[in-house]
Amino acid sequence: MARLLHYAAHPAPSSSQANRAMLRVVRGLEGITQVDLYAEYPRYDIDIAEEQARLLAHDVIVLQFPLFWYSCPALVKEWLDLVWEHGFAYGQGGDKLKGKTLLLAVTTGGPQEAYSAEGYQHFELRTFLTPFEQTARLAQMRFLAPYVFHGALKRDPAAHALGFGTLLGALRDERLDLRAAETTDILTHDTLPLIGIN
After folding, report:
1. Exposed/middle/buried for residue 119 (C-beta within 10 Å: 0-12, 13-18, 19+)
2. Domain segments of the chain as ranges
3. Could you give the CA distance from residue 57 to residue 144 in angstroms, rounded to a whole number?
């Protein structure tokens, strides 16, 4: 059984149906450590030692956030900058996250077709998430395809939230085909590569 650490980071969660629905599902799962970054650090006074201890104690790190200006909300970047420091996540002696898995759970306001060369965003979503993928690579972690909910402002999030619970449960119980999850573009509630139970 893998040890999961789930970080939620939405500066205004009450305004997001999708992120609230995902959080409700996570809170109903056993064996998953859940942290709301904005609730824990409203003034951005991040406890680096505490956060590094959390990371060390878990196998899978899940970062849930809405896409803001083609990246993450500000507190996620601050958290990464301070916690994933030289000598811890990378650089000389910085192999503390080696072998761990990173998964992003991202919601977007725009529809899926917007994220293509022909769409109004002009790039695939994975292009905007490249810094996270490279961060995982530098930290010697496994980077899974992001779990994505496009058009979150106008769509019912129920199936997506349930799928998120299924995904986290499969990661916890080691029933997710990690190789397939690494090589696909994005994961959605109906494209989860689950390993059957014998």
Report:
1. middle
2. 4-183
3. 20
Contact 108, 69 (CB under 8 A): no
- What is residue 135's DSSP assignment? H
Tell me how far apart the alpha carbons of residues 148 and 134 are, in angstroms, rounded to a whole number: 19
Cα Rg, the chain, nearest whole Å: 16
Residues 17, 152 contacting (CB under 8 angstroms): yes
Q: What is the DSSP string of 160-182?
A: HHHHHHHHHHHHHTT-B-HHHHH
Please give the pLDDT value at position 15: 82
Burial readout 11-23 (b: 16 or more C-beta within 10 A, e: otherwise) = eebeebbbbebbb
Segments of the chain with pLDDT less than 70? 197-198
Architecture of domain 4-183: 3-Layer(aba) Sandwich (3.40)
Residue 66 main-chain phi, psi, to 5 deg: -80, 150
What pTM, to 2 d.p., does this model score?
0.95
